[in-house]
Amino acid sequence: MGVRVQSAPFDMGAEVQSFTDGANGAGAIVTFSGLVRDEGGTLSAMEIEHYPGMTEKALEAICAKAVARWSLADALVIHRFGSLAPGEQIMMVATAARHRADAFAAAEYLMDYLKSRAPFWKKERGADGETWVAAKEADEDALKRW
Question: Which of 15, 68, 103, 135 fits a disulfide with 28 by CB distance 3.0 to 4.6 angstroms?
Fold first, then answer.
């Protein structure tokens, strides 16, 4: 199980290969990469802040829950912080399990948690100024299924 919180970009292909190489006994690997979205075409950057130490501990706890709940062979979460431009990768989730249903469910669980409960604060910067990103009801509703 691995958790990394970093400012530097990551190579999705290399991360997936490394994760797959270490996923002994797995019959399924599920990966997801989240990108900075610019829905209105006015975003110049997203600023992501976190508290070092606290953030990693929270992500490690939720990864451990996923590993136990779905008997995962492995799990990986990478989340970036700092100033990110539209189209850049924000995060990656990878899960490995004996069967695909468990790998998919665990990946969705981790993504829902990252979207709603992970201790990151996001501010959008654009032509109209800066705005903190508020929690969305749909993201909160997604957590209810878990």
Answer: 103
